[in-house]
Amino acid sequence: MGRFDERFRSFINNRWLVFVAAMWVQSCAGIGYLFGAISPVIKSSMGYNQRQLSKLGVAKDLGDSIGFLTAILCEILPIWAALLVGVAKNFIGYGWVWLIVTHRAPALPLWAMCILIFIGTNGETYFNTAALVSCVQNFPKSRGPVVGILKGFAGLSGAILTQIYAMIHAPNQAALIFMVAVGPTMVIIALMFIVRPVGGHRQVRSSDSTSFSFIYSVCLLLAAYLMGVMLVEDLVDVNHYVVITFTVILFLLILVPIVIPILLSFYLESTPIEERLLVESHKQEAGNANSSTEEMLLSEVEDEKPRDVDLLPAQERQKRILQLQAKLLQAAADGAVRIKRRRGPHRGEDFTLMQALIKADFWLIFVSLLLGSGSGLTVIDNLGQMSQSLGYDNPHIFVSMISIWNFLGRVGGGFFSEIIIRDYAYPRPIAMAVAQVVMAIGHFFFAMAWPGAMHVGTLMIGLGYGAHWAIVPAAASELFGLKNFGALYNFLTLANPGGSLVFSGLIASTIYDREAEKQAHGPRIPPNSGSTLTAILNGALGSEEPLKCVGAVCYFLTSLIMCGLCIVAVILSMILVYRTKIVYANLYGKNRT
Q1: How far is the C-alpha of 519 from the C-alpha of 536, rounded, in Å?
Q2: Which of 29, 56, 233, 261 has the most crowded CB, counting CB atoms within 10 A?
Q3: DSSP 8-state symbol, 507
């Protein structure tokens, strides 16, 4: 019994249990991606036009991205308390919206609805920050895979909740808003005491690569399964009991990763790990004694070394730097030079937010993220209207599809960017530039509105947008350190509402409403509309319903503008790659020797 108790305590404190629980938390932390599915029912119930609906979308993006208070609370409060604050915000915000949409509570003005959407979505920042901060600290040597998988499950939450909604089989679409309010609340409360930084997080285990491979396999299987289920439900009129079966299998796939901490805690020995921890602690104690001298000396080496040293092969570069370091030490001992104290951290060390804000690299990341993810978020927020304008009656299928591609983009972005830095010591932002090229192609497909363009565009935008949120947090932690990762991450997420405010709130909505007004007051209706008669009747009879735009023209200009912005983002990312080559060579070049 005593051995079982010891194993059980090991299980509770296992960092893989924290990681799996964080995956489950993240599967509820992307409820903002469901806005494209719930926006039509809000629009019809409240009588909003597209510009008013876009303001709600901006409020959602602001709530999803403004996390300064979250970062502060995660440093002051226990992780479980921060999660509880997020649960309260999510439940109150979306719960009240559901009451208003279903006419169980009096209607509120638009500004008040924006506040409710902001509060409800802001709960996500607590889920995201708590999960990421805990797991990045628990897995400091595997930032790319950890961030990619966690952010991937956040992107997949839209498809998961949509499938649960299909199982409930509610005739009223407002039930999806109710599920957004209640579902995450139940899951987070059940897991809030598990997700936290645990001791022994610097240990190195040979089983880590196998465990990550298993998680990746589950992720791919989960994405393929959801895609297959969606296609079947969209093309075939399936029985409700079949939908229930699909959902139960989905739950089982989500629960499968729990076998990793169970096997590691109850069936595998951990003595060698404890020995490595003991050796590492001695090394840390020995290193702390000379840390300040080494930091000052490294600063002098950076100032004195020739430029061509960084272009040498890793072994030769290390040899030349050691020679220069020895000369500086001897000169300092003889009094020939004076080693000066550093004024601030170098890239690759721990920055505060204020120190990072004065660095050009940080702003290159931010602006590139704003253009890339902001254009992708514009598609996500308007996906319901985009599909309806092209004649698709059910926008839920595209919301679920982009959620799945978003998921694969995040998982794949973390995986492939890790290969780039581990195997080639090349800057991680090169992966972000590739993702932005993919997004530019996707926006072009949306603009052309060719047959099947909605499916292809959804694929490319989902993959590219998702990859941003696996690559950027990992790159920021590498360039600016882990110590203040929460504050740095939450500042970077401001790129989302910034892009959404300009691209969706101003550009997309203005162009959409202008085209809708043209169709309402004129006989010209673009081809390939799917509902031409409805549009003519709305214009001729003066219907009080919100104006609707029909045809490819609705988002043609918007998509071309988004395509151009992604090309600019690619240029910025390549500038960042050029500037950080030396940093990544120093961080990861030694792994190739």
Answers
A1: 8
A2: 29
A3: I
- Can you spell out the DSSP letters for 348-360? TS---HHHHTT-H
Helix (H) or strand (E) holding 246: helix 240-255
pLDDT of residue 318: 65
For the record, the structure tokens of 432 come out as: 């972000």
pLDDT tens column, 3-44: 777 888 888 888 899 999 999 999 888 777 678 778 888 888
Query: In whole angstroms, what is the distance from residue 460 CA to residue 408 CA?
Result: 11
pLDDT of residue 34: 78
For CA atoms 190, 192, 195, 198, the dihedral sign is: negative
Burial 255-269 (b: 16+ CB within 10 A, else e): ebbeebbeebbeeee
- Lowest-pLDDT choice from 82-91, 97-106, 165-174, 483-492: 165-174
pLDDT score for 297 = 45
Q: How many CB atoms are located within 10 Å of the residue 190 CB?
A: 12
Cα 318 to its chain centre, rounded Å, is 36
Measure the CA–CA gap between 532 and 511, rounded to whole angstroms. Answer: 19
How far is Cα 443 from Cα 465, in angstroms, rounded to an integer?
12
User: Helix, strand, or coil here: 13?
Assistant: coil
- What is the spatial distance between Cα 375 and Cα 61, in angstroms, rounded to a whole number? 13
CA end-to-end span of the chain, whole Å? 48
Mean pLDDT of the chain: 79
Distances (CA, A) of 51 to 46, 385, 570: 13, 12, 29
Cα torsion 489, 495, 497, 499 to 10°: value is: -160
101: its two tokens: 């949409």
In a 13 Å sphere around the CA of 167, the CA atoms on its Cβ side amount to 18
* CB count in 10 Å sphere of residue 392: 14
* The pLDDT of residue 437: 96
Q: Are 51 and 509 in contact (CB under 8 A)?
A: yes
**Residue 140 three-state SS:** coil
Q: Residue 389 is which amino acid?
A: S
Q: What is the pLDDT of residues 191-236, one digit of tens each?
A: 999 998 886 545 556 778 888 889 989 988 988 898 888 778 777 8
Cα dihedral value 551, 557, 559, 560, nearest 10: 140
Judge whether 442 and 492 are in contact, CB under 8 Å: no
Phi, psi of 312 (to 5 degrees): -75, 160
Average pLDDT of the segment spanning 511-521: 84
Residues 6+ positions from 582 with CB-CB distance below 8 Å = 310
pLDDT reported for residue 522: 64
Best CA proximity match to 432, nearest among 278, 254, 571 = 571
Cα 328 to the chain's mean position, in Å? 45
1: Cα within 13 Å, side-chain hemisphere: 0
**C-alpha to C-alpha distance for 555 and 477, rounded to whole angstroms:** 37
Please count the residues of the chain: 593
- CB-count exposure of residue 227 (10 Å: 0-12, 13-18, 19+): middle
In order of 168, 203, 289, the CA distances from 276 in angstroms are 51, 7, 21
Residue type, 233: E
